[in-house]
Amino acid sequence: MWRLPLLRARTKLESALSREAAFLYNNLLLVALCLTILWGVLFPIVTQLFKGETRTIGRPYFDFFLRAFGLPLLLLMGIGPLIAWRKTSVRALARTLRWPIVVTIVCGIALALAGAGSSKPGLIAYTFSAFVLASIVLELVRGVRVTGSLFTLVSRNRRRYGGYVVHAAIVLLAIGVAGSSAYGRSKELRFLPGQSASISGYTLTLRGVQRTQTSNATETRAIFTVGGHWHGTLSSGTNQYFFPPEPSNQVGIKTDWLRAEDLYVIADDVNLKTHVVYAKVLVKPLVNLIWLAGFVFLLGAGVALWPDAREQRRLVTRLAPARA
Questions:
Q1: Predicted pLDDT at 312
Q2: Are 309 and 227 contained in the same domain?
Q3: Residue 255: beta bridge partners?
Q4: What DSSP character marks residue 70?
Q5: Position 247 in a domain
Q6: Are residue 257 and residue 192 in the same domain, yes or no?
Q7: Model's pTM, two decimal places?
């Protein structure tokens, strides 16, 4: 009765083109990405411990390894579910992936014509995301053709299709990260009262500076009026707390759900005498998809983990001889 698990444990990787190999590549890339992030986080602590000085690793380090390991991981999410177990051929794999490849090429051309080619990593992330979504849709269409109903399809194999929902959440996360980092805009500006500046379709005008005393802090704010894509008021500045005596930056944020982007205003230096304000303004597109990805991830995990009565009965039947 232990032969079957033993044979499975002894099964070797038969081909580099198989679902087992795709799992192996996925795990290797994921471990490599985790180790590089871990080293980037621990590097300041290590330098402080051994050299007595703190050195930090900047954004280029993380961007490089995110592209080197994250983009292949994203691509494997679309290939893994469609590739055969044990062994497959290049021709059979190409035949299976032909529709996702066509969708990827069409989306890549359309995005390049729309101006997404200004960032090559962003364009690659978008096209790979289209490939993964096309693979998920292809699997769902094939399954619905057999069962006749999407609900029946998911209920028969919740772990599999819950995993596809999790894959869709990771795609949303990838699109949000690519959009906010590769296509975001930022400017460091100096404002005088009444002075205006523009960035990515937004016009900011410094209306004034004010200071407010509260029970636990002194609040200093620069007030901006915003025009362009959105009309309203944003304030940003610092809070100087008394207990404990420490400052805290307060960021002005406006979320535009229709345009799927966020506007950030960070007033780093506010001069109360001259009313001169030094501020950093950032526009981050698609950052809201990162939050949406979290909810979709929880939905997919719930589908995959939801108890299945039929699977429980099959498990009891399968284990009954071993218990006897």
A1: 67
A2: no
A3: 262
A4: I
A5: yes
A6: yes
A7: 0.79
